[in-house]
């Protein structure tokens, strides 16, 4: 469904300095599957979301790599072609603070008309209204929302409305960047249920869910991928990533979060010391080495490849991690702590 090969993108600052925010990311997500992306603030999660759409505008710039959606390579396409042929139909994107994306002076139905007319200028207003009414009803949103302005909706309702609008054209891939942030627990639950319904009812065929909360991803996604300093440091099934992390950063990330799951919630909170590297001048070796208590001089001088190991969860599936230590050595170290 979506395959990304060695994607590299950068920001160019006012001083003409390059910031390598996404550096050699590869991933694959099959139809019917959901992938979670986790990591601390500034690790490149949101930049990856923007980059995956193939739609670039300053200060974000494409460097190299392939983005393949359903067999079609969208990397390198002209921005206008991406906007008309990809966004909304192939890939839909829900940005952070999406509830603020709605025009406060426009009714929701007018916003939907604008979205659909980009792809189908001839579609009548009646057909658009009927489509929106049916889709909103299926997703548990009342019809009267279509005739309201954004200021008349609560935060949770606005977020659910934005999600419904983003998926009105039934995109193949939905990329959701922190869709439940800034919401109360009840609203978060409704948003997550709505996104599950989109998958179950076939309105979207696969999903990438971005957040800094690993426990949330455990209950929402099939697989989890952890980013650090613009690179993927580990990927596995949701259960493996929460209960059997391999990379020291993933281990530290899990140790710094309150997890209600049995078997993990008894662990004490542990802070990760130090700060991420400056991506204007990324280090030669492992990017986590300065903060890793297991690092050796080799870690700081040698480029670290992505290693594959058999998954315990599914025969034929390989999980990946970026560390010079072997799995056997990692588990020995963790067990002796």
Automatic annotation (TrEMBL):
Q: What InterPro entries does UniProt report for this protein, alphabetically?
A: AAA+_ATPase (IPR003593), ABC_transporter-like_ATP-bd (IPR003439), Oligopep_ABC_C (IPR013563), P-loop_NTPase (IPR027417)
Keyword Transport assigned: yes
Task: Please give the superkingdom of this protein's source.
Answer: Bacteria
Classification via SMART domains: AAA (SM00382)
Any one biological process term the GO annotation gives:
peptide transport
Q: Which GO terms describe its molecular function?
A: ATP binding; ATP hydrolysis activity
Asked whether the keyword DNA damage is assigned, the reply is: no
List residues of the ABC transporter domain: 7-254
Q: Keywords on this record?
A: ATP-binding, Nucleotide-binding, Transport
* Name the record gives this protein: ABC transporter ATP-binding protein
What is the source species? Parablautia intestinalis
């Amino acid at each position: 469904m979506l395959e990304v090969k060695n994607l590299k993108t950068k920001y160019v600052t006012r001083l003409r300095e390059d910031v390598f925010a996404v550096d050699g990311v590869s991933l694959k997500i099959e139809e019917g599957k959901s992938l979670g992306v986790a990591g601390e603030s500034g690790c490149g999660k949101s930049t990856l979301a923007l980059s995956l759409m193939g739609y670039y505008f300053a200060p974000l710039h494409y460097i190299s790599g392939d983005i393949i959606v359903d067999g079609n390579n969208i990397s390198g396409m002209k921005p206008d072609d991406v906007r008309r042929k990809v966004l909304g139909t192939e890939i839909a994107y829900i940005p952070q603070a999406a509830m603020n994306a709605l025009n406060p002076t426009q009714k929701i139905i007018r916003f939907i008309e604008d979205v659909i007319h980009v792809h189908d200028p001839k579609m009548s207003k009646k057909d658009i209204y009927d489509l929106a009414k049916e889709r909103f009803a299926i997703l548990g949103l009342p019809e009267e929302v279509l005739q309201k302005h954004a200021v008349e909706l609560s935060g949770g309702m606005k977020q659910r409305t934005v999600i419904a609008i983003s998926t009105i054209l039934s995109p193949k891939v939905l990329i959701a960047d922190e869709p439940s942030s800034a919401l109360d627990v009840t609203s978060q639950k409704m948003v997550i249920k709505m996104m599950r319904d989109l998958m179950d009812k076939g309105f979207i065929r696969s999903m990438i869910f971005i957040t800094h909360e690993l426990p949330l991803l455990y209950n929402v996604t099939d697989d989890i991928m952890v980013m650090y300093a613009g690179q993927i440091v580990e990927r596995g099934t949701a259960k493996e990533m929460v209960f059997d992390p391999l990379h020291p950063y993933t281990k530290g990330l899990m140790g710094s979060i309150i997890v209600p799951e049995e078997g993990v919630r008894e662990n004490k909170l542990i802070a990760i010391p130090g700060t991420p590297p400056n991506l204007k001048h990324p280090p030669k070796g492992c990017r986590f080495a300065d903060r890793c208590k297991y690092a050796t001089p080799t870690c700081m001088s040698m480029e670290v490849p992505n290693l594959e190991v058999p998954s315990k969860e599914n025969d034929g599936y390989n999980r990946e991690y970026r560390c010079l230590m072997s799995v056997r050595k990692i588990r020995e170290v963790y067990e002796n702590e």
